[in-house]
Amino acid sequence: MRLKTYIVEDNPTIRENLIGTLEELAGVTAVGTAETENDGKAWLTDHQQDWDLAIVDLFLKQGSGLGVLAACRNRPARQKVVVLSNYATTDIRQRCAQLGVDAVFDKSNEIDALVDFCLQHTSVLS
Q1: Is-contact 29 5, C-beta < 8 A?
Q2: Residues 6+ apart with CB under 8 A from 7
Q3: CA angle 65-70-76, nearest 5°?
């Protein structure tokens, strides 16, 4: 079973590299992407049955990933939301935990941990 994943990331290079990496290594199928808070919130809430994992950056073209996280707060337990950011500080990690995020990963040095998270979640869904 592949992990249906929605990605909220405004940098096209990072987004495409992330999709390629996760599809190849982590059993992920990208079901959509957004570059803004509004687009991310709208898709995730309008398509509640269409995703297993949301990967959210905090700094977007419009708005903030924090708004996307807040919109996903009341999701079913089977759905996971993670943050992938260059700003994975202690304060950010605490704020994300308050918003119900399942994990926070640093773009610069925790991609392997994100892959492991995806693989673990895929095995749970199988």
Answers
A1: yes
A2: 15, 18, 19, 30, 32, 33, 34, 54, 55
A3: 115
Q: At residue 2, does pLDDT exceed 70?
A: yes
pLDDT band at 30 (very low <50, low <70, confident <90, very high): very high
Query: Does residue 70 contact residue 99 with C-beta atoms inside 8 Å?
Result: yes
The whole-angstrom distance between residue 50's C-alpha and the CA centroid of its chain comes to 14
Side-chain half-sphere exposure of 83, counting CA atoms within 13 A = 29
> In this predicted structure, what is the pLDDT of residue 123?
79
CATH of domain 3-125: 3.40.50.2300
Q: Could you tell me the two tokens for 4?
A: 């249906």
Domain locations along the chain? 3-125
